[in-house]
Design brief:
The complex is a heterodimer of chains A (150) and B (661). Chain A has 150 residues and is an alpha+beta fold. Chain A has 4 helices and 7 strands. In chain A, a hairpin with a 4-residue loop joins strand 4 and strand 5. Chain A has 2 domains: 33 residues; 108 residues, Nucleic acid-binding proteins (OB fold (Dihydrolipoamide Acetyltransferase, E2P), Beta Barrel), CATH 2.40.50.140. In chain A, strands 2-4-5-7-6 form a 5-stranded mixed beta barrel. The radius of gyration of chain A is 21 Å and the shape is elongated. Chain B is of the alpha+beta class and 661 residues long. Chain B folds into 4 domains: 162 residues, Four Helix Bundle (Hemerythrin (Met), subunit A) (Up-down Bundle); 235 residues, no CATH class; 124 residues, no CATH class; 102 residues. Helix content of chain B is 62%, strand content 12%. The chains are: A alpha+beta (150), B alpha+beta (661).
Chain lengths: 150, 661
């Protein structure tokens, strides 16, 4: 086997792997990525949300959390609009009213059906997307809203 | 006072590292032995100074010196001693100091163990190692000084994030960093070899044990983090393809590829420039991981509050380190001598296949991890890339790799006999197909996911394939049995290492497949006395009591669990409320059996007077931990091979004065 042949083999192997990966990535990017929206974007129907798996982020509205058995209802707000969310399951430890939250699920009849409520590891942490959507709607209160209130 | 000594020692270390980064390099260029020789003493001094600094911070934590801002923000007098110590690296500044300490210790290890190294290579490698130290010392001194004072000192500290107050997480960061920083050795030696323009077997023999050590630490660190997420977060899962997890997984993939290609360099003197590229990539991905975790550019469920200004600094460091090395690579790699030839179907060929798939896999993980950043920058909307993406992209790429893993070790170097190798794997193939069919039937045809049968068959194939290779080496069934046993005893440890590691991966794949495919879960509001059955286990909630811990209050549920009418276990999950910082955490109760984990979580009181409970049955989870442990032990066994220790890097026939840039 000559040097050139070996190099050719190397290149073909590489191309095959990269090609397979590219095909997998492209098909996955079409189906498997999840878009993030604020309540305003969803409620003013600026975005197509039907049937798609999406993420909804904002603040948990004060006084909106209702627990019935293992089902939790609350509203996610960005100050301008509040969208009702229903979730069945155990909430993450740091889920609190007035705090930032990111949920993942699908839009139902005017209600967001969440299959996941994402936890955070740190009470001072605000998801970047939530911070930006709050800034956009003019309800941003600084880096750590809960510290400002102290 | 002690804090100031720590701070001062860091500044001195910066000066020493600056000398170490420049003088030996110039010495190596000009062939000046005394300038090159400076690398040794400076690396010792640097290590000593950094360790003094680390000890000073440790002292501040142990004595709860709240006049040090870092301690005041992250510690508390009520905290158990273990977490006072672990608290040193449970925060940004301290974890950076730990990173630098490990870097300095690794650098000193080169001086300590590298007596046989050619002086030019050693001087250059130590200089490159010092350049990394300089970068990180500048970072810590200018943006994240752990010794900043607080005046007046507060009466008590703010405490450590309770999620981090856990024995699993106490040792997770140091192990992870030992892995990340361990790859800096391969990196420094790769850069030194590029400057020198020579890569040979001696180089690979020196780099391999360090890469292996780093790989062992990184594997341990990732597994510990995953185990922690499994029992501490109470979600019943163990891997979420979260950016922070990916950040540690990408260097692992590149490092695994590097381990295998370094073997080819050592044994066959081939794939040299590819190996150099992998060495640069493995450490580059470690740096990238640090950047992703520390800068907060990507939303992660594991994220902690971060400071964007620091991100810019690490990004700069990243650009200089990776950009500079790739530039050097582009300039120098073509001048590396091309080594031994091999046929596509050979041991080298299969190792190359492993490398290509590993590298492609790491590439797709990188793409998925960074895609949200690209999409945001290009105004394609805010997206998150989660488990569905990685599962449908990464896992298919690993299937051919696992298939080839059983074949590769049976091929001979240079020119292999694929038909012969496959013929020897007949038994393994037959049994794997049987396993696939059995799995399919047992899970009730299409009731379970279709890939479960494939996953179990792959695990069986790899396990039996690895055993086949062991049987081949000992010529089992072809020579008398006693002779096979004595051959078994004479196998080199590196062979045992490979067998254990590959078999460990097989066990891991079985555990991963089963726990993902056949997990049962039930979430409900459960009243006292009520019974819920999950996967044949009946959980009766007996009572919920308040208990007091050293720095928390907890409500503790008591479940009586029975299976088929027989008592199985009493399980007591807790929901804790820590006092400082005031934060709730979930403590799952887990009963592990060989076939699966019974897992119970208790939540808040619900409006109907019950408690929200989450009950799981996770099959074969312990196989994953056991498989990982086999991989780690395999790495350690291979590391203890005498070839790695005895007279490793010697370059016979190369006169010392041939060193030139």
């Amino acid at each position: 086997m000559t040097r050139k042949k070996r190099r050719l083999y190397f290149v073909i192997l590489g191309l095959l792997a990269v090609g397979a990966a590219a095909a997998l990535v492209l098909s996955a990017l079409r189906q498997d990525i999840v878009f993030f929206f604020s309540p305003t974007e969803i409620m003013e129907a600026k975005v197509p949300t039907e049937g798609r798996r999406i993420r909804l982020g904002g603040l948990v509205e004060q006084g909106s959390v209702v627990k019935e058995g293992a089902t939790v209802r609350f509203k996610v707000t960005d100050g301008a609009h509040a969208l009702p969310v229903v979730y069945e399951g155990l909430l993450p430890d740091l889920f609190r009213e007035g705090q930032g939250v990111v949920t993942e699920g699908r839009m139902g009849q005017g209600v967001f059906v969440a299959s996941e409520v994402l936890a955070k590891h740190d009470e001072n942490y605000m998801p970047k997307e939530v911070a930006e959507s709050l800034k956009k709607s003019g309800h941003w209160q600084g880096e750590h809203p809960e510290q400002v209130q102290k | 006072m002690i804090a100031e000594i720590g701070h001062f020692a860091l500044i001195l270390a910066l000066a020493v590292a600056a000398i170490q980064a420049s003088v030996p390099l110039i010495g190596a260029r000009n062939g000046n032995a005394s300038w090159m020789g400076l690398a040794g003493p400076t690396s010792a001094a640097q290590m000593l100074l950094v360790c003094i600094s680390f000890a000073a911070l440790m002292h501040a934590y142990i004595t709860s010196d709240f006049s040090v801002m870092n301690v005041a923000q992250n510690s508390h007098t009520d905290k158990p001693m273990l977490y006072k110590v672990a608290g040193v690296w449970g925060n940004h500044e301290g974890s950076l100091l730990l990173w630098i300490t490990i870097l300095a210790i690794f650098g000193f290890a080169v001086t300590l163990f590298g007596r046989n190294l050619p002086p030019g290579l050693k001087a250059r490698a130590l200089a490159v190692q010092a350049m990394i130290t300089v970068g990180f010392l500048l970072f810590i001194l200018f943006t994240s000084n752990p010794f900043d004072r607080l005046d007046p000192p507060p009466f008590n500290g703010q405490g450590l994030n309770p999620l981090l107050q856990d024995p699993g997480l106490a040792f997770h960061p140091p192990l992870l960093y030992l892995g990340y920083v361990g790859f800096s050795m391969a990196f420094s030696f790769a850069i030194a070899a590029l400057i020198e323009g020579r890569v040979d077997a001696a180089w690979a023999r020196w780099v391999r044990p360090w890469t292996l050590a780093a790989w062992v630490f990184l594997t341990c660190g990732i597994a510990l983090g995953s185990w922690w997420a499994y029992y501490e977060l109470g979600w019943g899962g163990w891997w979420y393809w979260d950016p922070v997890e990916n950040a540690s997984f990408m260097p692992w993939l590149a490092g695994t590829a590097l381990l295998h290609s370094a073997v080819v360099v050592e044994k066959r003197d081939a794939l040299k420039s590819w190996t150099i590229l992998l060495a640069i990539t493995a450490f580059g991905l470690s740096l990238l991981g640090t950047f992703l975790v520390r800068s907060g550019v990507i939303t992660s469920v594991h994220a902690f509050a971060t400071d964007p200004a620091r991100g810019v600094f690490i990004l700069g460091l990243l650009v200089v380190a990776i950009g500079g090395s790739f530039l050097l690579y582009a300039l120098r790699a073509p001048s590396l001598k091309i080594g031994g030839l091999f046929a596509p179907l050979s041991r080298e060929g299969t190792l190359l296949l492993n490398n290509v798939l590993m590298a492609t896999g790491a590439g797709t993980v990188l793409l998925g991890t960074l895609y949200p950043l690209f999409a945001d920058a290009l105004n394609l909307g805010k997206v998150s890339v989660g488990p569905p993406f990685f599962n449908s992209v990464f896992l298919p790429l690993m299937v051919p790799m696992v298939l080839a893993m059983a074949v590769g070790p049976l091929m001979s170097w240079k020119r292999g006999d694929l038909a012969g190798a496959l013929a020897r794997l007949k038994v393994a193939a037959g049994l794997s197909i049987l396993v696939a069919i059995a799995t399919w039937l047992l899970q009730g045809g299409s009731l379970g996911p279709w890939w479960a049968a494939g996953g179990m068959a792959l695990a069986c194939w790899l396990f039996l394939g690895t055993l086949t290779e062991l049987a081949e080496r000992t010529r089992l069934f072809r020579v008398p049995f006693e002779q096979s046993v004595s051959r078994l005893g004479k196998l080199p440890r590196s062979a045992w290492g490979m067998t254990l590691t590959h078999a460990g991966l097989a066990v891991f794949i079985a555990g991963m497949t089963a726990s993902s495919a056949w997990k049962s879960e039930s979430v409900q509001s459960q009243k006292i006395g009520e019974t819920v059955t999950v996967a044949g286990y009946s959980f009766t909630l007996k009572d919920v009591q308040n208990v007091q811990g050293p720095n928390y209050m907890a409500s503790r549920g008591t479940f009586e669990v029975t299976k088929d009418g027989h008592g199985f276990a009493v399980m007591q999950p807790q929901k804790r409320q820590y006092k400082m910082p005031p934060m709730p955490t979930t403590e799952a109760a887990i009963e592990t059996t060989f076939l699966g984990d019974v897992y119970a979580v208790i939540g808040d009181e619900s409006s109907d007077g019950g408690y929200v409970t989450r009950l799981y049955y996770n099959p074969l989870v312990v196989w994953m931990w056991f498989g990982t442990a086999m991989m780690v032990v395999g790495g350690l066994v291979s590391l203890s091979d005498r070839r790695h220790r005895v007279g490793a890097p010697s370059r016979a026939r190369v006169p010392a004065n041939s060193v030139k840039a």
